[in-house]
Amino acid sequence: QVQLQESGPGLVKPSQTLSVTCSVSGVSISSGHYFWAWIRQPAGKGLEWIGRIHASGSGSPNYNPSLNSRVAISLDPSKNQFLLNLDSVTAADTAVYYCARWVPSGLIAFDIWGPGTVVTVSS
Amino acid sequence: EIVLTQSPGTLSLSPGETATLSCRASQSPDSAHLGWYQQKPGQPPRLLIAATFYRATGTPDRFIGSGSGTDFTLTITRLEPEDFAIYYCRVYSVPVTITFGQGTRLEIK
After folding, report:
1. CA of A85, closest CA in chain B: separation in Å?
2. Which residues of A touch B40 (CB under 8 A)?
3. For residue A111, which residues of chain B lie inside 8 Å, CB to CB?
4. Is 70 exceeded by the pLDDT of residue B5?
5. pLDDT tens digits, A19-69
6. Interchain proximity B96–A62, CB inside 8 Å
7. Antiparallel, parallel or unpaired: β B10-13 and B104-108
8. Phi, psi of B31 (to 5 degrees)
9. Average pLDDT along chain A
């Protein structure tokens, strides 16, 4: 079955770049049927969509406007992974970071999620 | 961007009762773009309802999604102990934005 698994640094210093990887198994991220997305959740708070990417290359990734200037999502088809980079982090970026599959037709939903990885921004 | 407001913030009920969770949108979304998720402590969210009405695979039939316009509802009948969790509604809108409500905590009374 399809599984997603995040891996991240655990701790990032303020002003540095946060990088998290999502490894996908059970489906090729290049198949073109899905988008691949990032969502985050600060401790005890709600969910915030970060952005999504599609393998087709026909369009740019879509990002949350509140993060647009600092975020980049990319694909590594050779490893069946997708990546999140978030620049110039502050303590406000401390959160659990989830990767998820977005189904763009029919369900139109995040149907499969990774277990999440905790990233703390602190000096 | 569509803003979603969920109410109540916390709902205290007993097993066997019926829970009614509300999600109000700042603008009317396509009903195909409205979904509900359940999250338990230490776990990622799980898709319950897609396109306002349709239960995802594995969602029990006591979970009922409804609504139209700007008002959407998740009804959970015959509450089971495993239903006590946080519930989020989520909307997709164009230009592409995906937004979650702030969540409703369903707790055991």
Report:
1. 19
2. none
3. 47, 50, 56
4. yes
5. 999 999 999 999 888 999 999 999 999 999 999 999 876 668 999 999 989
6. yes
7. parallel
8. -65, -20
9. 94
Q: Burial-class residue B27 by CB neighbours within 10 Å (0-12, 13-18, 19+).
A: exposed
B2–A contact, CB cutoff 8 A: no
Tokens of A7: 């891996």
* Residues A62, A68: Cα–Cα separation, whole Å: 9
Tokens 């102990």 identify what position?
B81
Q: How high is the pLDDT of residue A59? A: 64
Q: What is the C-alpha separation between A60 and B56, in angstroms, rounded?
A: 29
pLDDT digits (tens, 9 = 90+) for B20-44: 999 999 999 998 999 999 999 999 9
Which residues 43-102 of B have a C-beta within 8 angstroms of A? Answer: 43-47, 50-51, 54, 56, 88, 90, 92, 96-102
CB-based contact B47 A107, cutoff 8 Å: yes
Per-residue tokens: B12: 């205290």
Residues B65 and B55: their CA atoms lie apart, in Å, by 8
Separation of alpha carbons A98 and A4, rounded Å: 9
Top residue of A97, A110, A117 to mutate, by most chain B CBs within 10 Å, is A110
pLDDT value at residue B95: 87
pLDDT at res. A62: 94
Question: For position A57, what pLDDT does the model report?
Answer: 63
Strand partners, A41: A96
Judge whether B37 is closer than 8 Å to chain A, CB to CB: yes
**Among residues of chain B, what percentage have pLDDT more than 70?**
100
